[in-house]
Design brief:
This protein is an alpha/beta fold and 413 residues long. It contains nine helices and 14 strands. α8 packs parallel to α9. It is globular.
Length: 413
Amino acid sequence: MNLSKRFVFDTKRKMGLKNFMTFVVVSWFCSIPTTCVLAAKQKQNQNQNQKLRFDENGEFKILQVADMHFANGKNTLCLDVLPSQNASCTDLNTTAFIHRMILAEKPNLIVFTGDNIFGADSSDSAKSMDAAFAPAIASNIPWVAVLGNHDQEGSLSREGVMKYIVGMKNTLAKLNPPEVHIIDGFGNYNLEVGGVQGTAFVNKSVLNLYFLDSGDYSKVPAISGYDWIKPSQQLWFERTSAKLRKAYIKGPVPQKESAPGLAYFHIPLPEYASFDSSNFTGVKLEPDGNGISSASVNSGFFTTLVEAGDVKAVFVGHDHLNDFCGNLLDIQLCYAGGFGYHAYGKAGWSRRARVVVASLEKTDKGSWGDVKSIKSWKRLDDQHLTGIDGEVLWSKGFHGSDGAKPGREEQNH
């Protein structure tokens, strides 16, 4: 087990009383109908009215940022970097990397997949989040986040962290689905991506995005280790997937099957252990056991995904030294690779980010139709933001005679 993951188990017990007192204070504060709280709710309502849509080039690009582990900015030093970097490397290197990625890729959506802050080292969780998400906010690009296992270890509870995120500028993140009264976790929601303006698909969601809270640590005394996606979350996903499928197959422009979907959360599923170097693209460098830090129990969520049929790829973080994608039962299971400099890594092994692009197909009339392919690559935080491991994750008609099998492609990004 790596140093960062060991540290949280050692400190978790010590922080119990601190977190309890913080929870009491935060709960008391949040019960007061202050102008600040009302303003946050108003901002959330404004954000939720924003509609994601494919651009005029028929593309929708997502930048995934995994495991920033942001703490106190210039006062927080980097972990696992070259000796020459030790004196000057701080959280600000993480901030600079996000700026570079946004300028290079110009994504339509930025997705932060947990451990956005490292709560145990943060002097103020809210201030850490303000700094961590600042590049995304400044870009005016829509962004979302889910929680990891370290976000809640500071001055805010897990619910408090997600509530704070939801109130921030330009975010489309939600605390939980408004139609569900009881659901485990904080930060379970979906977003629909509409077709190109002025086309027949303008009022259809041609790409569905699912975000889930994969928890932090097991709450069951007899089960140690990390948490998992619960039945209540899986039921919400099943119902949401079915609802979106029903809407997609009926008019206008009736379709035969669901629109493709992508799922984002923090902790990998046990099925991520199904791959080795012979059947994935990327690397698996985590030293622990089978190289995967998933829950010790299998909640069955992968089976749920297979049965739903719409999710074509899953994207997680958590294991910073894994950045691979592998195909299991026609679902791509992908890591982003570690992004943050205050997160454990490997000296000389560049921090990295994952980019995903969904592309629409042209109709017979020359207009934009539904999704034709989903591609991905990674960029390294080196001098040239080098692009690596370009591949097709999914293509329309893969099982038919007109479909190309997903796989590696020439990297030219």
